[in-house]
Specification:
The complex is a heterodimer of chains A (about 110) and B (about 110). With about 110 residues, chain A is mostly beta strands. Chain A has no helices and eleven strands. Helices cover about 0% and strands about 50% of the residues of chain A. With about 110 residues, chain B is mostly beta strands.
């Protein structure tokens, strides 16, 4: 596609429920990244994919968080048993190769009530 | 460990005034520094990177390794420059960015 597409744009969920956030990167971009943007915290790195593998998942805050990427394209970030502190904007970015010239998506705003 | 500090959460200037958004970093090696901007209701986008030494929308930033700084400057601010600005560092890895917490710039008429 023309840009990085994320869905849904907004998600309100009840505490304890599972959520899935989707990212569709720019066609041909082999690298994909997830970041979290919390109020007052800036952007925190979560995970990096090169193709379908994740050489760096060091930023995932707990084992409730997982992500996968299939076909070297779409990625899904899953948060199990959501907590209120998971409320944030989840940003996806992609780049050609492993360089840091990212293109960001518009994010998914997650609210856990 | 690498860290990026943006000491000002908020910065307010008048149109036509000079503006400087501060960024300091901590990294033991040779970093690559970036400025990203997020305008209201738009996605985060790259403004400039130090290795290209370019000027975008009148903004420039010089990497000062002695002071470990990468301040963003513009001689004459415009109202459309109002946005959230993030300084970011890539060190070691060539994929992960460490971001500062951002500075919200407001340019008043």
């Amino acid at each position: 596609g023309a840009g990085v597409s994320q869905s849904p744009s907004n998600k309100v969920t009840e505490k304890g429920k599972d959520v899935e956030l989707r990212c569709d990167p720019i066609s041909g971009h082999t690298a994909l990244y997830w970041y979290r943007q919390s109020l007052g915290q800036g952007l925190e790195f979560l995970i990096y994919f090169q193709g379908n593998s994740a050489p760096d998942k060091s930023g995932l805050p707990s084992d409730r968080f997982s992500a996968e990427r299939t076909g070297g394209s779409v990625s899904t970030l899953t948060i199990q048993r959501t907590q209120q502190e998971d409320s944030a904007v989840y940003l996806c970015a992609s780049s050609f190769g492993g360089g840091v010239g990212y293109t960001f998506g518009s994010g998914t705003r997650l609210t856990v009530v | 460990a690498q860290r990026v500090t943006q000491p000002e959460k908020l910065l307010s200037v008048f149109k036509g005034a000079p503006v400087e958004l501060k960024c300091n970093y901590s990294y033991s090696g040779s970093p690559e520094l970036f400025w990203y901007v997020q305008y209201s209701r738009q996605r985060l986008q790259l403004l400039l990177r130090h290795i290209s030494r370019e000027s975008i929308k009148g903004f420039t930033a010089d990497l000062n390794k002695g002071e470990t700084s990468f301040h963003l400057k513009k001689p004459f601010a415009q109202e459309e420059d109002s946005a959230m600005y993030y300084c970011a560092l890539s060190g070691g890895s060539n994929y992960k960015l460490t971001f500062g917490k951002g500075t919200l710039l407001t340019v008043n008429p």
